[in-house]
Amino acid sequence: VQLQASGGGLVQAGDSLKLSCAASGRTFDFSDYGMGWFRQAPGKEREFVAAVTWSGGSTYYADSVKGRFTISRDNAKNTAYLQMRSLLPEDTAVYYCAAQKGLATKGVDDYDYWGQGTQVTVSS
Prior knowledge:
Helix content: under 10%
Largest sheet: 7 strands, mixed
């Protein structure tokens, strides 16, 4: 199973950015998995950002991004997305996507597969 995160970059505070996470694998059924986004800033632990259930019917967000970020998925494309708006310097981190069989929880240890991460840098 491979999760390929992309879309990161250097932006200014207030800008928007959309991350993508493309999933692949011979025996991997994307629609069986909840998808999550996490981030890790230098010197800090990896933290939950957002999650979406297998159907896309339910979404969950960290309080720090609620109202600014939107998680979604397209099961036909085996891809999950994280639309980020009104970015703040404190959003600067490496963003990781992850897949969890059957559920979409907030715990780092709950996820089965991880992407390699994409850097998001927000300048003030």
